[in-house]
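Example S7 (structure tokens).
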């Protein structure tokens, strides 16, 4: 078997840890290097200790000279850092680069890596901007409606996210004693992911440029995103459900379910679950994903699989646990 060789830049954080957990078990890839300036020389399992016994790799320093050795590189650096890395290293056009930051999500020269929207464009792409976690969960609710012309009016969105969505660097609002048994709203109506959501909705057919109202909430749990969206429509519930069924008929990981969804169904998986219900003239759409997998590293591996011509679900056959 011709194994694909993979590099990771910015290997010390949560998304890199999840990537490593997936890639060490992927049947058709081999990790060549994991770069981390802060962890250089340490064993990967010393930092990501869930990988104890699964890899003998160590973090390296600058791996720019080794880019010619790999077929794909994942950028797991902070927002605003990836663009500088790309400009200074100028990776070959033949090298697949998957960026997990915000830096290229609005850049037309990069493919926006949401398979439920851009699967055909992702196949064979060499520059992929991985979507944001909230953006992924919200778009799973919005895109079928946009395609059908049902979100031209006001759309109200509420989403609650786990603390890992804020990254590994500690802050007052990720400290356990603050986050535990607590909830709070942040960036009300002004979250950075609204830009990419609006752009994708326009690509799917939404004409309106305003009217999406998003309240993000910090949740008292580590991982997962739970989103509710509601809007006015006179379309019957079964008609709307059929729109979603048709939209996701060929999706590898996104599923419409008849039952209300909850986080334990998706945590530690690459699944996106969607539920639709009507209440009078109100349509309620609920979605749930794991922010570190379908909202970040799992989707990045899904994009790599598509771009490199591998099976879309390879390395992502993960199971949720209810306990």
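Recovered sequence:
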């Amino acid at each position: 078997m011709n194994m694909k060789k993979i590099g990771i830049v910015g290997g010390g954080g949560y998304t890199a840890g999840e990537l490593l957990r997936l890639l060490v078990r992927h049947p058709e890839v081999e990790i060549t290097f994991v770069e981390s300036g802060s962890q250089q020389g340490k064993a990967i399992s010393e930092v990501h200790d869930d990988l104890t016994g699964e890899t003998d790799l160590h973090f390296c320093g600058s791996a720019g000279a080794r880019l010619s050795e790999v077929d794909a590189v994942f950028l797991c650096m902070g927002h605003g850092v990836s663009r500088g890395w790309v400009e200074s290293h100028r990776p070959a056009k033949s090298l697949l680069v998957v960026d997990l930051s915000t830096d290229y999500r609005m850049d037309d020269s990069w493919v926006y890596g949401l398979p439920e929207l851009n699967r055909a464009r992702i196949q064979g792409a060499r520059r992929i901007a991985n979507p944001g976690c909230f953006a992924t969960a919200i778009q799973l609710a919005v895109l079928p409606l946009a395609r059908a012309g049902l979100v031209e009016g006001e759309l109200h969105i509420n989403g609650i996210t786990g603390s890992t969505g804020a990254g590994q660097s500690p802050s007052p609002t990720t400290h356990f004693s603050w986050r535990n048994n607590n909830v709070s709203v942040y960036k009300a109506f002004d979250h950075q992911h609204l830009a990419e959501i609006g752009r994708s909705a326009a690509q799917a057919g939404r004409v309106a440029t305003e009217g999406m109202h998003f309240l993000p909430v910090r949740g008292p749990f580590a991982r997962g995103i739970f989103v509710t969206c509601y809007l006015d429509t006179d379309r019957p519930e079964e008609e709307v459900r059929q729109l979603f069924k048709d939209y996701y008929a060929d999706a590898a990981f996104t599923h419409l379910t008849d039952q209300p969804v909850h986080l334990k169904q998706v945590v530690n998986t690459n699944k996106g679950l969607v539920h639709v219900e009507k209440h009078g003239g109100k349509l309620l759409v609920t979605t749930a994903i794991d922010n570190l997998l379908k909202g970040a590293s799992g989707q990045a591996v899904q994009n790599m699989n598509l771009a490199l011509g591998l099976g879309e679900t390879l390395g992502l056959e993960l199971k949720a646990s209810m306990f």
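Notes on this example. DSSP finds nine helices and 13 strands in the chain.
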